[in-house]
Design brief:
alpha+beta; 97 residues; 3-stranded antiparallel sheet; elongated
Length: 97
């Protein structure tokens, strides 16, 4: 598998981020310096997000319960928080993808 990749699209205003199954096209709005900062932060964060999710994948595939689990990564925690209200039915945090 290739590592995280970030490339500008031809329009120069949108950034394509790709790593394994993650494929995003992002666009920031605001002042030029704010957009540059936002894109830099997005690229920096993107470097580790897939591995963080892979590290918790077994638990992310398990059904939710009414008590949220304590995931290590912030993305896994958000995925869990998104599905806890539906825990009475069969659902896993992967539904939040």
């Amino acid at each position: 598998m290739n590592g995280p990749q970030a490339h500008w699209l031809e329009d120069g205003s949108r950034l394509h981020l790709n790593h394994g199954p993650i494929d995003l096209i992002v666009e920031a709005f605001g002042e030029a310096d704010e957009r540059r900062a936002a894109y830099g932060q997005a690229v920096a964060r993107f470097q580790t997000i897939l591995q963080e999710l892979v590290d918790e994948l077994a638990e992310l595939r398990r059904p939710a319960s009414s008590r949220p689990r304590a995931f290590a990564g912030p993305t896994a925690r958000r995925m869990e928080a998104a599905i806890v209200p539906l825990a009475k039915q069969f659902i896993t945090p992967m539904a939040a993808v």
